[in-house]
Amino acid sequence: MSKNIEQSYKTLAIIWLALLVSQITFLGVIFVAKPDVYRFDLSKPILGENAVIIIVFAFLAITNFALSFIMKKRSYEQAIAKQEIAYVQTGLILACAFCEAISLLGMVLAFAFSYQYFFAWFALGILGFLLHFPRRDDVIAASFKK
Q1: Assigned domain for 121 exists
Q2: pTM of the entire structure?
Q3: SS3 (DSSP) at 41
Q4: Count of alpha carbons within 13 Å of 140, Cβ hemisphere only?
Q5: Does any domain span residue 88?
Q6: How far, in whole angstroms, is CA 69 from its chain's centroid?
């Protein structure tokens, strides 16, 4: 049983790391495809030329950030109730997907609107990833009846 827990935890950590690396890859793609957005012009307004879109994207980002924790918590509660480690993996993937969506919003802002503060969405998405780092205790809780 202990070997199964360790293997499950390692799988979660690998999934988490792969999804985190994709965030850095997105930043690299932006840098190669549209390097102009990395040149900051502090004379431009903080909301850019499309203030409404920026505000909507900010709202979506914050909503996704909150949903990532809510969905992960529900999935982990299910994992403990049903004693199924698979729900822990599902919760982690859901949480990371919501955080990745935040970064994708930043990518859209960079490509479609040349918004120079697109990196704020990436920062929030990566922060979410870091906060969702898999914990061995969650796998253990889903493995043993208490």
Answers
A1: yes
A2: 0.89
A3: coil
A4: 4
A5: yes
A6: 10
